[in-house]
Specification:
714 residues, 34 helices
Length: 714
């Protein structure tokens, strides 16, 4: 009876445990059929690495498809994550958001199971009840919503997957029966760590977790032992084992692997740090080092609070969401309380030796702290204030600590049934919160609106609501929200640019030009604003200024097909046809699928009487954009004018098959039949065009002529 251990959280059979974790991890399934939202647009939809660049190019670019050598690159190097996005596209030949969401949910379920296995390693066979309850807490925690329901969170999911695998393989190294198996397992662990780092930079912290596991869990060496050894005050059998067994070799290997991976990582980005704007991480731009550190610590408090109470979740925490501490502020006391509590826990691990759970607490802290360090602003500045997705792996340490604490607490103050009931209620609440929150990630409208309740002073929230409203055609709401974004952040250049575009479309050219110029005064290398200013100047007949603006945009962004396209329009208006053609040729080289550039070239060449050249260009365009009706339409018009009626008819029908609702195709096909003397068929085409667009004057006039012709014949 003396050795019997009381179970305060009853253990379950392994099979039942596995299925329970898998089922609970599906709390994020509410987003399985969601759209591409927020960062997904730039990282996947607008990222050519996902669908048309060469595979090798992926390893030269950052996560967003920008060259790592480019000044504006974020230096986020995650090629293996991009390769998984590329695989989706290769399998389906299309960007289908549901595929990406389903894989993310499956990855989270897999990670939740692997988390259980890692907990089992840490706690041992006698504590698998704690492992199970910690794993289900990890499975349902709402802080994971961004990582699971946001497709770009794939980086965190893959990083966690290979981090857990590296720890499991490292355990095989420790208990390998011979050196061959040990080296195979070590190679596997190192490969997994490397893959984890190439999925997300934090993957390299798996090395530190493995080292702590080896020292504290396997060899039972406590922090106090290390301190005494360093002070030459203590030497016990544990340290004799430390010297005599293979732990030194393993730790040396881990150390050199860490150095090698860090060197490779920094060499890839050219040993240069990314450049961020003050709006990305305001605390890093404070001149006062005391307030800078104070704000960093307040952000740490908020990260912990989101783990404890994940009620307020937001897709973005920048631009006024968290105001800076720059003077007397009650939040200073929050930082003090945080360090009193968290610091006490850290001190506890250094001062206590005999507590049976101390080793598990240390391991929980290692999993919580080490993966968070790259985002802590300690070693380098990051490009965000707070990001929920970076807590994906650290939350595993938090869940372990909470479960250990609940187990210890219930042993002293609660009867077992009360502890179990409290834990079940917690899981139900977190599951419900994750279900609701994952639903908000299904589309941008829901996501952005949900952020208003959390960060109403965040200019970026209002900016994204405005952008979403503009895409949906609600121009009035878009204008109001852009204006609100600028009220909250008067230096928000993107909001100025987008509001300027709305005003330009409304014909308010002078107001639009003023906004573009204001944006450029704040950010001289804002190439999009330069292009938009050029468009406005062209509309105002300020052709020289417009050309200068376009060239300035191209100076800051040489690969800019939209700018070259508008430059071609400018030359067309000035009747500089050769220059217009050259500009559009450049467009098609930079972006071979630019439909309007191909169409304009065909039309212009035809208007200049260069019909053969126009047909050559059209045939080249068909090879690249075979689904574009306008190309076939223009080929048909050219062939029709040349009297090649049968060939023209084929091209018109191809155009109709691509776009059966365009009245102009039917109207022009009617003209072809009219010339071809197929009057009844021509009449049918004119009527079809008028069904689609009753006020189409060309079809009306031609139909009237046809009726007159029939009358005269009779």
């Amino acid at each position: 009876m003396k050795n019997k251990r009381t179970t305060y959280l009853p253990a379950l059979s392994p099979i039942f445990s596995y299925w329970t974790i898998i089922i609970l991890s599906l709390c994020f399934i509410n987003s399985y059929n969601g759209d591409f939202v927020f960062d997904d647009i730039e990282a996947i939809v607008n990222n050519h690495d996902v669908y048309d660049t060469t595979i090798w190019e992926i390893f030269k670019n950052d996560f967003w498809g920008t060259k790592l050598s480019h000044e504006q690159s974020h230096k986020s190097y995650r090629p293996f994550t991009i390769l998984t996005f590329r695989l989706h596209f290769w399998l389906r030949q299309d960007l289908i958001s549901q595929d990406y969401h389903i894989i993310n949910i499956m990855l989270h379920s897999t990670n939740s199971l692997l988390t259980l296995f890692v907990y089992n390693l840490v706690l041992g066979p006698k504590r698998q009840d704690i492992s199970f309850y910690a794993a289900i807490l990890f499975a349902v925690h709402p802080i994971h919503t961004e990582a699971v329901s946001g497709i770009v969170g794939r980086a965190e999911l893959l990083c966690a997957l290979f981090t857990w695998l590296s720890i499991l393989l490292y355990n095989c190294v420790i208990y390998a029966k011979n050196s061959i198996r040990a080296w195979i397992a070590m190679s596997g662990s190192v490969i997994c760590i490397t893959i984890a780092m190439l999925c997300k930079e934090t993957g390299i912290t798996a090395i530190a977790i493995c080292a702590v596991y080896d020292i504290v869990i396997v060899n039972k060496i406590y922090p106090i032992d290390i301190i005494k050894l360093l002070l030459f005050k203590h030497s016990n059998k544990n340290f004799n084992n430390f010297v005599n067994n293979n732990i030194v070799l393993r730790l040396v290997i881990l150390f050199f692997i860490a150095i090698l991976l860090l060197f490779l990582r920094f060499s890839i980005i050219g040993f240069s740090a990314p450049k961020f704007q003050p709006v990305d991480n305001p605390a890093s731009f404070l001149n006062n080092i005391f307030f800078r550190i104070l704000n960093y610590n307040y952000i740490y408090c908020l990260n912990i609070w989101l783990l404890i109470c994940p009620i307020w979740l937001c897709f973005d925490w920048s631009m006024g969401c968290i105001s800076l501490i720059t003077g007397h502020d009650y939040r200073i006391f929050v930082v003090i309380i945080f360090w009193l509590l968290f610091g006490s826990l850290i001190m506890y691990t250094f001062m206590v030796h005999k507590d049976k759970t101390l080793r598990y607490i240390i391991m929980g802290l290692a999993i919580l702290i080490f993966p968070f360090l790259p985002a802590s602003n300690i070693f380098f500045n990051v490009g965000f204030v707070l990001a929920e997705r970076i807590l994906y792996i650290p939350s595993a340490g938090y869940c372990l600590l909470v479960t250990i604490g609940l187990h210890k607490f219930s042993a002293r103050f609660f009867v077992p049934k009360m502890a179990l009931f409290a834990y079940i209620m917690l899981i139900v609440l977190l599951f419900t919160r994750s279900w609701i929150r994952s639903g908000q990630w299904r589309n941008e409208k829901l996501l952005f609106q949900s952020a208003l309740a959390v960060c109403p002073l965040n200019a970026k929230v209002h900016y994204n609501i405005a952008k979403n409203a503009a895409d949906a055609g609600d121009i009035n709401l878009a204008k109001l929200e852009y204006q609100e974004a600028l009220r909250l952040n008067p230096n928000y250049t993107q909001a100025m640019n987008n509001l300027g575009n709305l005003l330009r479309n409304d014909g308010q050219l002078l107001k639009a030009a003023s906004l573009f110029k204001q944006a450029l005064n704040l950010q001289k290398d804002f190439s999009t604003a330069w292009m938009n200013l050029g468009i406005v100047q062209s509309s105002l007949k300020q052709y020289k200024k417009s050309e200068t603006s376009y060239f300035t945009a191209l100076q800051y962004r040489s690969n800019y097909p939209d700018c070259y396209y508008n430059l071609g329009i400018l030359y067309l208006e000035q009747k500089q046809y050769d220059k217009a053609l050259k500009a559009w040729i450049t467009v098609t080289k930079q972006k071979p699928t630019h439909r309007q550039a191909w169409t304009n070239m065909i039309i212009l060449l035809d208007d200049l009487g260069k019909t053969e050249e126009a047909l050559e260009v059209a045939n080249e365009a068909v090879q690249l954009i075979s689904d574009h009706a306008a190309i076939y339409f223009n080929i048909a018009n050219i062939l029709g004018k040349k009297g090649k009626y049968e060939e023209a008819e084929i091209q018109f029908k191809l155009a109709i098959s691509r776009n059966p609702t365009d009245p102009m195709i039917y109207a022009n096909l009617g003209v072809l039949y009219h010339r071809w003397n197929k009057l009844n068929t021509a009449k049918q085409m004119y009527k079809k065009a008028l069904q689609l667009k009753p006020d189409l004057s060309s079809a009306k006039d031609n139909l009237q002529r046809l009726y007159k012709l029939e009358t005269s014949i009779k």
